[in-house]
Amino acid sequence: MKKRIAIPLILMMMFSVLAGCAGQANNSTGATAGNQQGSSDGKPKVTVVLMELSAQYFKFMEAGAKAAFQEFGVDGKVIAPSNQSQVIEQVNMIETALNEKPDALVLMPSQPESALPVLRKYKQKGIPVLLIDTDVPNWKDKTSYIGTNNDEAGYTAAQLVAKQLNKGDKVAILEGIAGTYASETRIAGAKRGLTEAGLEIAVSQSADWDRVKATSVMENILQAHPDVKAVVAANDEMALGAVRATEAKGLKIPVVGVDGIIEAVESVNKGILFGSVAQKPYDMGYLGVKNALAAIKGEPVEQRIDSGLDTITKENAEAKLKDLKAKLGQ
Which residues, if any, are the signal sequence (predicted)? Predict the structure, then answer.
């Protein structure tokens, strides 16, 4: 009799175990489905694509993004082509990132128009795209643009130079890579500021954001225009190259750049470079990720966020230097 009772009990226990296993399998499947667009641990997945990572300006942006990854619990990565001129390489990176199904993209586009076809695919898939530093003005479907008013940056640099000159003095302008939005808008602002101050623009020439090229370009400018009294450069790398060329000629003329990288601020502090209009790339990277997370959650995000400017001169260079080094952990 006892044996007859034992068999049904054993069968009931077997069915119970099988049911439990089935329940666990169903729960596991449900968890996987819920994280299809996030990382495997449930964190929101954000990809940040920059123009490059070698120059210090971009290192600040990377540092800001990584600080936000850590603070907000984001599964994020920062990638970039080998240099700013590799437009197609960056476009391919954006395409590859799309195939990896991020929850949001934070992008600093090298050439906005080249990136548009891929960015439209992000829109079709419902993935928010936030632009930092460089806008894509003709694309209305971006979630937000976070960065400097580049026209204002160029204008401020021109005003800084103008205070050291007399009306009618000649000024040289060093442009970034031709066709890039940041260069064109900064140069437009610089030309407006110089013209308003009654200064003559002797020449405006591209040096591709590069210090070495800027030295060579500036040497040629000084050869053709020896009466140039100042230089406005669209970034600090070119400004430092221009200083090298002017010093080689034994000239001491005001040179102003844009970006506020550590080496430029050190040069300002030493009285070599006259000034820099500092952007806030660390803040751009940080705010890009922070607002991407808000967009993922369906929270409202401002369409334009101005990350601000600082004017760096000899008077405030030392304090600015300490702040910048702290952000890079130096």
Answer: 1-19
Report which secondary-structure segment, H or E, holds 98.
helix 87-99
Tokens found for residue 167: 């009306």
Neighbour count for residue 200 (Cβ, 10 Å)? 14
Contact between 227 and 196 (Cβ < 8 Å) = no
Q: What is the pLDDT of residues 98-152, one digit of tens each?
A: 999 999 999 999 888 889 999 999 999 999 999 999 888 889 999 999 999 999 9
Task: Please give the domain boundaries of the chain with CATH numbers for all domains.
Answer: 45-147+281-299 (3.40.50.2300), 150-278 (3.40.50.2300)
Could you tell me which of 132, 60, 113 has the C-alpha nearest to residue 328? 60
* Nearest of 228, 134, 227, 150 to residue 193 by alpha carbon: 150
Task: Give the DSSP letter string of 228-243.
Answer: EEEEEESSHHHHHHHH
pTM of the model: 0.75
Residues ≥6 apart with Cβ < 8 Å to 234: 154, 173, 174, 175, 176, 182, 183, 186, 187, 190, 209, 257, 258
d(CA 140, CA 171): 37
